What we know:
six-stranded antiparallel sheet, binds iron/sulfur cluster, 2 domains, single chain, alpha/beta, Rossmann fold, 37% helix
Amino acid sequence: MSKGVLLxxxxxxxxxxxxxLGTMGVDLVALHLESPFGCDSMAEQMARxxxxxxxxxxxxxxxxxxxxxxxxxxxxxMNPCIDCRIHMFNMGRTVMEEVGASFLVTGEVVGQRPMxxxxxxxxxxxxxxxxxxxxxxxxxxxLLPETIPEKEGIVDxxxxxxxxxRSRKPQxxxxxxxxxxxxxxxxxxxxxxxxxxxERVEDFVxxxxxxxxxxxERRLPAASMLRFGRHFKFEEGEWVIVGRDDSDNxxxxxxxxxxxxxxxxxxxxxxxxxxxxxxQEPSWRMEALASGALHAFGGGKVPSGxxxxxxxxxxxxxxxxxxALSPDQSHLMKKETWIPRWRR
Length: 344
Ligand code: SF4
């Protein structure tokens, strides 16, 4: 088998790794593994640019488990890079079997990342995933032991590189030489390395770990909603998400049916209000909170009295009336009642 599977984040390094092998005529299939938290990846565009087919898979629920209890710990933020690489290599091996490939290709550069790209970490990741000799790293190959595709003459080692460290200069020069039409960010923009996102992920992991047996398939859509909207937690444990703008509303709406219940205003302007919950039907408490959120964040455009909304849940969508708030619930209409769950 002379085919390889390229782990394509959509960042510059993995794109270059694909381009280098492309210039040798190596048969490649790209595999992009999506984080449950989402990212703005350029994988599709870069696979087109390299001229290879792309398979997209979610890292799935096992990734949420390893995120909560990573065997090798976290990096500077909530990034469990070594465990994540092992997980990705395991998923890569499955795809290798499916497409008849014999090796993996990555854009890793020795010494570029302190946690997962030291030589020691690289050897340990290859060992733990059972992939020794079958992971080709074209950007640093000359600093690493010869791999099976090199030994078998599928890949010409002389045309690979021996780069190390954090400088991007060689990558940028090569991108120019290979006429890359866009220069993506270095590593595809993983949110778990973003310290601003850490508070959200820490909080999510705490809730998710305890709730995982009950939440089941709801875990992934709930994770996907973490980066959109304003999030609030109420004393009875309700997790409420309110869209900030049309873009938030659209993204939240695309996930809420898998994660709980949503209320979309009908006949008036207002945000989408979502509840991450196991319930399929709104409780009176949810109705009161949804009505309060619509008033508090509706920009003064929400009518008084009962509110007409569309109820979104796993069972579909239907029209629904939110009863008018009683005087003792009127505090829910005030923004001061709504204390954000996270500082950022
Ligand atoms: S940066 Fe993100 S995607 Fe990359 S190895 Fe670390 S956790 Fe995984």
